[in-house]
Amino acid sequence: MFVKSGDRFIPTRAGSNWSINFHYANENCRSPSQNHKAKDTTSDSSKDAVTYAALLRNELLGSGIETVQDPHTDERRHAVPSQDSHSLFKYAVHTKRVPFHSDNEVSPYSLSPLSNKSHKLLRSPRKPARKISKIPFKVLDAPELQDDFYLNLVDWSAGNLLSVGLGACVYLWSACTSQVTRLCDLSVDGDSVTSVCWNERGSLVAVGTHKGYVQIWDASGGRKLTSLEGHSARVGALAWNGEQLSSGSRDRVILQRDVRTPPSAERRLQGHRQEVCGLKWSPDHQHLASGGNDNKLLVWNSSSLLPMQQYSDHLAAVKAIAWSPHQHGLLVSGGGTADRCLRFWNTLTGQALQSTDTGSQVCNLAWSKHANELVSTHGYSQNQILVWKYPSLTQVAKLTGHSYRVLYLAVSPDGEAIVTGAGDETLRFWNVFSKTRCTKESKSVLNLFTRIR
Q1: Per-residue pLDDT at 381
Q2: Which Gene Ontology CC terms are recorded (predicted)?
């Protein structure tokens, strides 16, 4: 009788690099789309996965990892120390006993199979996950909200009043009471609203019109204080600096006027070759940044009639401008469809700092008052809202919901929430920088702006 027999095959692992194999095992078990989502997520499960991977490295590879970085803020993998050349499965008997003196060491009488490093890893403090709701907590219907990139039709006052330009009217919505009032109606004069801007105290609101007028309104009294002339085309950008008001127009001119003095006392700033679509004063009230359809970003001081700095790196219109409240002289700007980039500038030295391609038209920018973060709103082609960390430019959150370009942005006076507006005729409120407020979905669309006929 013939009996088959054979030796058992035992593979040799002497030349294997276990650190690389361990890395590939983790990567190959997920699809590319899952790997991409893992980089963007800030959930507890992703942190648990990183902790578990580090624990396995400690026990199998002797990596000695004691702390785990946030996978969202630090995407670099843990560096694995160089391993000894001895076999991975070498058994050894430790005869020398080390006295137990520290709380950081595992007791010799512990039944846990984990090493000291792994115990430290599990005991290391973990930063709570940053959770930003991807659902707006309130949605308001805003009929006749124009889909025009060059206009600025939404602003939020220090008194918690939201001003919105809808067609020929300006409406005020109270964030405290949800009450809506109509401030003005320009249809009587055959005009329409092209920009709105609150002063710092939140008592006056400036209204730019299609015919080139700038009207100053007392919000509490609901009366027009004055109407300023000087522009020959629509006024799409406004910016207050104390009692001074700067206005930018399609006529390529920036007018700076003190509302307390006669209208004849004005400064004319001429530097753009096309329409002025963005204006922002620095937090120290010393410098004015202006963006235009000529792809230029200009910085002016309070005394000269010529720009002190000119930046020409953008390849499209510059509407989105924001000064950092955390770092003196730091300015960020965003370009239109042909550019799509965020660019950061040190206006103290005139140097370009860094830039990033957002993938779509940049419509608006705003810094957080509490942290070194900023939010950008976008148009073609993704219509998204992005939250960034600075200076790492790590993407903290991506919010979607608008079906048109997100052209309008304003930050609440407490710095916790933002409101965005789009040509889909909706205003959406998001808890982006919130630390304490609960983010709950608002199930119904509140058609508040149709209460007044």
Answers
A1: 83
A2: anaphase-promoting complex
